[in-house]
Amino acid sequence: MGQQIHFVVDPQGWCCMGLIIFVWLYNTIFIPKVILFPHYEEGNISLVAVLCYYFCSLFCIASLFRASVADPGKLPENPKIPIAELEHWELCNKCNMMRPKRSHHCSRCGHCVRRMDHHCPWINNCVGEDNHWLFLQLCFYTQILSSYTLILDFCHYYYFLPLKKENWDMFVFRHELALLRISAFMGLIILGGISRLFYTQLIGIFTDTTSIEKMSNCCEDISRPRKPWQQTFSEVFGTHWKILWFIPFRQRQPLRVPYHFANHV
Fold it and tell me: What positions belong to coiled-coil segments (predicted)?
């Protein structure tokens, strides 16, 4: 089942996403130019280190764009409700449309989203049932790329051997220290923020609760069966193959979830 393109008209979201793309472009251009390529040419690092950096960068930007344009689980205007599942639907008091339980109305997007976790301005989209897996991949690869960048910044000054020849680009050579300080500063800020967000997302999947449900304290039903973590992760990523949880270049196939496991909100 292919994902539909979902585009949110929100200037604030465009600015936030533009800032993320700027940071990604900055590190993808200057880190190889200042550190990776010069040290590779002089034999201080291997080709594997260069390729790993570009792979992390590619997976990071791919998950960002896919999470941004993927349909998070927007409900159609006239949904067809199976008679057997009618009791598991409810009426939204904001848009007056029927929706499955655990769905929420996004005031910024103006519609209901299935199993909505939150609206994220950094991807200019809601995080819902159909793109939650991409958002998790974005958080994961952003942490990997930020950590890798910080390690390279540190090793460039305190571990790698000094370069024997000057960089051919005089602008980069003259402003090398400033460029790497900016890179390290952005890496620390992003790594700190994303790590905290990624941790809360993992806890939410382990406990089978969304961020909205946590804030509204709607998940205190102790009679609700607790699912194994493998099942909750498989439902989010749409596959039981764990290796596919890390690949953003695929289509998610939703797994059928029994309603007796659902957290009725």
Answer: none
Instruction: Count Cβ neighbours within 10 Å for each residue of 215-224 and write b for 16 or more, e otherwise.
Output: eeeebeeeee
Q: How far apart are CA 58 and CA 111, in angstroms?
A: 32
Angle between helix 176-207 and helix 132-158 axes, rounded to 10 deg: 140
Find out whether 130 and 115 touch, Cβ atoms under 8 Å. Answer: no
Q: What is the pTM of this model?
A: 0.87
| Run of H or E residues at 52 | helix 47-69
Give me the phi and psi of 14, to 5 degrees please: -60, -40
User: ∠ at Cα 225 (223, 229), nearest 5°?
Assistant: 145
Two tokens at 188? Answer: 């620390």
DSSP sequence for 118-162: EEETTTTEEE-TTTHHHHHHHHHHHHHHHHHHHHHHHHHHHTSPP
Residues with a known catalytic role = 120
Rounded to an integer, what distance in angstroms lies between the CA atom of residue 222 and that of residue 199? 23
What are the residues whose beta carbons fall under 8 Å from the beta carbon of 97, sequence distance 6 or more? Answer: 75, 77, 79, 91, 112
Segment 36-93, tens digit of pLDDT: 888 888 888 899 999 999 999 999 999 999 999 999 998 887 777 777 777 788 888 8
Q: Tell me which DSSP letter residue 88 carries.
A: G
Q: How many residues does the chain have?
A: 265
